[in-house]
Amino acid sequence: ENRLKQYLGNHGFFRATVETEVKLKERKQKVNLKHIVHTGERYKVHEMKYHIEDSALKALFYNDSVRSFIRKGTPFDFNLLEKQRANIVNLYKNNGYYYFSKDEVSYLADSSKFEKEIVLDMYVRDVSGQEHPRKFEPQYLNHFYISVLPGSVPISSGFGASGHFTDTLRWRDHTLYFGSDIQYKPRLFRNLLQMESGSIYRLNDARHTFDSFSRLRQFRFIDIQFQEPALKKDSNLLDCHIRLAPLSKQAISFDLEGTNTSGNLGVAGNVNYQHRNMFRGAEVFQINLKGAIERQQRLIENVPEYFNTREIGTEASLTFPQIVGPRVVMNVFRDFLPKTVLTLGYNFQRRPEYTRTITNVKFGYDWMTSEYRKNTWNLIDFNMVSLYRFDPGFIDLIKDLYIKSSFTDHLILATNYSYIYNTQQPGILKNYKYMRFNVESAGNLLYLLSEGFSRKLVQSVDTLGPGMSEYYQVLGTRFAQYVKSDVEFRYGYIIDKYNAVMMRGFFGAGLPYGNFDVLPFEKKYFTGGANGIRAWRVRSLGPGSYRAPANAYPNQSSDIKLEANIEYRYKLIGFLEGALFLEGGNIWAINRKDNRPGAQFRFNRFYKQLALGTGTGFRFDFNYFLFRLDIGMKLRDPAQTGGNGWIIGHRRLTGDDFNLSFAIGYPF
After folding, report:
1. Quick one: 140-246 is in which CATH superfamily?
2. 402: which residues sit within 8 A by CB, 6+ positions away?
3. Is 60 exceeded by the pLDDT of residue 640?
4. Residue 98 pLDDT exceeds 90
5. Residue 91 in 3-state DSSP?
């Protein structure tokens, strides 16, 4: 009872009463306790008064917005007072007051003057008369000591562990200690430090510096502390001590995994090599070799092998811990923990229907504008896709010329930007928001150069219309030209540690033009399958109300996608979880050359072409990975002619109205 009363009192219910009823169950030797709570009316703040004796602290406080947390009419809440206390401490620590702590802030609550209203007085302790009054003046940064601990030195070694180091380097107001086995250029540390000698101490700068070192993924241990200089006691100066314990410079790993792509089982193996300090500036070089075999559904005849799909690929990347480019660009991004990434890749895929090779070159930047906001800007995203060795049976299964036109050799030279806002924190059970925005443009530079240099146009028969098609080629391949953008929202509502509701919305559109009149196959949108509307097999829904022929290849993709999902997740027992979900959406075409009946997007009918599915699922959470099994059922099929698409109540359910999906990880 006392704990309940204390909890209610902390939230402003000062007149709450708690009654306890005790019932004995002699047979079961148990006691049932029933607490009856009468909260009464919640007290509110009548007035908030601030008492700050020090003039400098007072001026900082009134020039900031931290006092706006509590005002007249605010329900009394102890947690709100603690939040304001923490914000006040941060305010002063970000303005040089390193020694200021929450103990300097206190509250006095008086409920005797007004009915069910409280007068709050906040006091900031006057520290001017203390033994060391300069500690409560703004502190300034003096000298930086950076210690890169050799692998044999225990992390617990203190600041006085300089005997463990074989080399010392000093420049200006910095001292670097390191061993013979550690080789970093001093410039790296100058770039990572978000503080400088002579500047006022700010807590956020210290945190930003920690994040700079952490984001490198070079160190297994990072510690930043501040101390009064040994030779300058009773001063308002601080020395900064940074201790770093590096990870191993090189690493190689092997892994073998089972794969399940839209119901196609397979096995994949990877060899990964990583060098964490390629050029002594924390540049990370990685190379990955991948080989995979997979069992594709028999869409064509005469495929004797059980594992009829083979994939071999390699990808190499080099990541720089800063912007590689003009100095003016480097200065703009310096405070945002930037990285420059160069990636080269090659992939060979042999499928029963065709063989495809993809060559990729990518160069771009990524940076963090806050803890939750990540930006990626690829200046160059080059892909050359070659398709050959088509099986005649596969060509016959593709009934539509528009789909066939996507299965041609093409080249993509794009630039794209991605923004991600994500408040989800691993291991922390609280509501979160996620938003991802992408925009991409391709082919414009190549088209302008081709026009500017009056390059010769290539002519071929237009498979999608009468007459001839004219276009430019680069490296003997037609290049794509399009603009594409999409946005995704997610919201996670955590009920408790056993139950949660997850919501997701997605909208995207791509528009081809100029040199290539269709979107490349890999740039189109599709739905269905384990990560789409799970009542349909992957790529079997849409576009619009279009119904593909019964024996057609399940390859429905198009230019627009709209999808919404909601899923209730709950714990069952041990590692087993359950889920119930409801999903809707579809894909549509905006390209006039798409001649599939009902595929075109129209404002006056698109809402009538929305598919709806529901289902249940099981998740097997083994900590390191999560295996998922979902069973989806169609509720509304836009390709159905009768009943306005609704299935239940208009016809009997069949096996085609259900879909079983296997996957690794959550759908969203």
Report:
1. membrane protein fhac (3.10.20.310)
2. 464, 518, 591, 593, 594, 595, 596
3. yes
4. yes
5. helix
